Each structure stands twice: as C-alpha cells, then as structure tokens.
C-alpha cells in the first residue's frame, strides 16, 4: 500500500510538472539564433526566437536591439516582447565580418562563463550584416535553420568538425587558431561559402568551401567532402579540360616533426580513400596500371592543393591546422611568440596515399 501511495504521489507530481511546463513554454520566447553587428560605436544584436502558440505549432520571429555593449542584449530584447526572453536553447551565433574584425573574444569568454550556453552551439561569420543574413534565414520559419545547415555540412559536406568545445579549444589553446563557417546569400538563399580564419579572436581572411575540405582532411578523419579535380583532355585534343569529382570515403592524417634535416620540417602524411564519378569518356581503367596511374595523378593533385593551402595560412599568419600546437608537443622549450615570428618560413612536406574505391557515374 505504501508503495502504491508513493507511486500515485509521484504520478501526480509528474502531471503537475508537465502542466506547469506547458504553461511556462507558452509564456516565453526561446532565443535560438543570435547575430552581432557593429554599427558605428554601437553593437546591434538580432535574434531569431521560437514562439510556441499552441500544441504542435511553432513560429519564429526576428527581433533587433542596439546597445553600447553586447552584454545587455537579453534585458533590452525583453522590452520588445510580451513574453520573457530565454536563451538556454540557443544553437547558433552569427558575427558580421566588421564585428569579427574587432574581436569576438568577449562574446566567447562570456558564453564560456554562462552555464546556460550549451556545448553544441555553433558560430559563424558573414560578409554582410548579420541581421540581414538572419532575415533571409528566417524566411524558412525554422529558428535553428543556420545551425542545422552547419551540422549537415559537417556530416555530409566539406566543413571540418565544429562546435563550441572545438572553438574554446582553438581559442584558449596555444599554437592554434579559430575557424568558423562563412555565410553569404545567393539568389535569395543562405549559402555556406567557406571558412572564416582568425588570428586570436580577430577575423583575418576567408577561404573557399573547397579549401574547407582540405582543412577537414588535415584536422579530422574525414568520411565526407568533395573536391573537383581538372584533368587535361585526351591525346587527340590536349586543350580540353575535363573534371573528375572525388568524394572522400575515409581519411587519416599523420604528422611527424623531423628535426634531423638541416632545417626542421613537419612531414604530413595523408591516406585518403575516395569515390569518383562523371569520369571523362576518354579516361579508361582497363588495366591495373591505368588505375594506379589515375590514383597517383589524383594523389599528386591533392598534395599540391594541401601544400598551397598551408602556404596560404602561413602567408596570412593564421594557424587553423594547429601546426604550432603540434610542434609544441614535440619541443621542450617551445614559445608561442617565437614560433609565430618564424611560422611563415616553417617547412612542411605533404605526401598523399590515395586509393579509388569506386569509379563511374553515380550519386555521391
């Protein structure tokens, strides 16, 4: 009897709790995407919120407010709605390039200290005003549309693995720099156009979605990602350029710091398994030798692409790969300031071992 009484009481508590939560959810607006712009000396904050009007129905709303600081965003937004603003389910933050050039460190540090901010939160940069990008995204009436775009492109596209934990690791860790998705608008729709690269907390440059795949190979065990490779035409028409689209099935990267050479060099060995499609009609794989030659050609092309990407990062003095962190792990008296003074001259040597698992025409 006691057991039944306890269970009955527990059930009542559950029912009351569910009813109470239902009332609460109808009285709040959940911030799920936020944007930061710099307009003169003031910060412009924009948010996309979810409104739960009735069971099973959710709408999204774009709200904007300006302030001398981004820290009082929520109190100011609360003055513009009849429902209490809550941000515990925020999943995406967009910075305008102008805002990111001034530094996103204060926002990252503030989020790091806030227990309401979840580790799954994503961040991104746009070349336009963040509020305008969010206005375009809000047409989908899905408050987490931008976050889901990022997650989808990490899982099945060219973006390297990212979330707030990775951002904090790259921001606070020595010998590495932040990188974030870079958004644009094309034909009235939001598009992930590449990656924004940072030095410390300041935006430096952006790279294409193609180069994002190269960074994915250098930082992850990549199971997805695509690269379009130009190929010279057949012997009868050497001026024609055809293309082969290769998709990564799996990859592994291994780093070695070679100090026995006259100048220290970072050896980077990539093993990549790919599928290829839309092969030019003149390209034949009738023999093992022909396939071996094709794999070597793809591998050499990928080697050059990766080496050029590393050289680009060195020229901009950004380190999204974390080469400084790697050298630090292999050096007793490593100093971050000294390392990055000579970082543009750091020697790297890339080798790619590539194997084609499947070729022909098919859906990638």
TrEMBL record:
<keyword id="KW-0732">Signal</keyword>
<dbReference type="GO" id="GO:0016020">
    <property type="term" value="C:membrane"/>
</dbReference>
<dbReference type="Pfam" id="PF05504">
    <property type="entry name" value="Spore_GerAC"/>
</dbReference>
<keyword id="KW-0449">Lipoprotein</keyword>
<protein>
    <submittedName>
        <fullName>Ger(X)C family spore germination protein</fullName>
    </submittedName>
</protein>
<keyword id="KW-0309">Germination</keyword>
<dbReference type="Pfam" id="PF25198">
    <property type="entry name" value="Spore_GerAC_N"/>
</dbReference>
<dbReference type="InterPro" id="IPR008844">
    <property type="entry name" value="Spore_GerAC-like"/>
</dbReference>
<comment type="similarity">
    <text>Belongs to the GerABKC lipoprotein family.</text>
</comment>
<dbReference type="InterPro" id="IPR046953">
    <property type="entry name" value="Spore_GerAC-like_C"/>
</dbReference>
<dbReference type="InterPro" id="IPR038501">
    <property type="entry name" value="Spore_GerAC_C_sf"/>
</dbReference>
<dbReference type="InterPro" id="IPR057336">
    <property type="entry name" value="GerAC_N"/>
</dbReference>
<keyword id="KW-0472">Membrane</keyword>
<keyword id="KW-0564">Palmitate</keyword>
<dbReference type="GO" id="GO:0009847">
    <property type="term" value="P:spore germination"/>
</dbReference>
<feature type="domain" description="Spore germination protein N-terminal">
    <location>
        <begin position="22"/>
        <end position="184"/>
    </location>
</feature>
<feature type="domain" description="Spore germination GerAC-like C-terminal">
    <location>
        <begin position="193"/>
        <end position="360"/>
    </location>
</feature>
